[in-house]
Amino acid sequence: MAHCNTILSQILKFVSRHEFESLANHHHAGRSFRTATRWSQFVVMVMAQLSGRISLRDIVGNVNAQAHRLYHLGSAKLTRSNLARMNENKPYSLYEALFGKLLRHCQHLTPGHRFRFKNTLYSLDASTIDLCLSVFPWADFRATKGAIKLHVGLNHSGYLPEFTVITEGKTTDIEVGRTLAFPTGSIVAMDRGYMDYAWFNQLTNKGIYFVTRLKSNARYKVIEHHAVQKNKGIISDQTIMFTANNAVKKCPIPLRRIVYRDIDTGKQYIFLTNHFKLAAKTIADVYKARWQVELFFKWIKQNLKIKSFVGTSKNAVMTQIWIALCVYLLIAFIKFQSKIHISMQQILRLLQLNLFEKRDLMALLRGDPPDSRFKYDNQPTLF
User: 75-105 in b/e burial notation, b at 16+ Cβ within 10 A?
Assistant: First the structure.
């Protein structure tokens, strides 16, 4: 009789065990546990993310219910105390490095973005993850509030978080933005939180394009007027130079100012960009597409466990977030590889409901009925 591994086992096979162990040896600190390994920690925490577990007791209870399957996952059974100590003390940098490895694997399968231009398109933004200051005293943000901040440069080819940085809640968006090395020729859409004239000049000198919204109090002079298509909502398209002394010193280059009125809402937007070749309507559409990074933040906060934490130390919180981001990439990889037109939300729901079922992963995503040739395990599960 034919056999088929569990859905979870097939998901974990997308992670190279050789690469993982190499990273684990490189990002090692402290004494090793006699039976528990970093791979066991990763397996258990991935299981927790995919099954929606919210506490250490809940996670360990789920693991105990599936103890007979851990051997086939290459994992050892972890106690609650062992898992808590590993999350607290073993460097989270392992999972940050693993995220980079998985990202590179995903990039080979991504579809292109929906625009006609060939430039790589990024949306840049940050989202605050609130924490209780009395429980997480290291995450000082405001007088009575704790927080950390997740900064993401989302590549529209597959909507992958290609640039990801986690900082203290007090870190401003532009501080992180300046450190990101976008590739030459790429287009970066961002909101006014990244308004920095000196940075705009640097991006232009590096051959990187940006699209943002111009502040209402910006002082400038118009150098040239361009023809507009008013039937597409474009009110004006101008080449400008800043005139304020500080702005002139920091950004002594011509930029493009576009005034656009949304036909559906009637709301008016003023965009600033250093890209002079794209149509004005395309610039407006690029900024509108920036909403995808907001949808990314919404998705991971609603579907993965990055708002409630199973540990209180900084290392435990960072470990949980980086593993959650790794899970996001695993789901994205499954979506790209399967080439099935269902959303990541639908894929996650199917995985959650069938995590320990023994059937073919791709057949599950296609909606094929279970194959009677496979031998299924009738052991009870928590699902």
Answer: bbbbeeebbbbbbeebbbbbbbbbbebbbeb
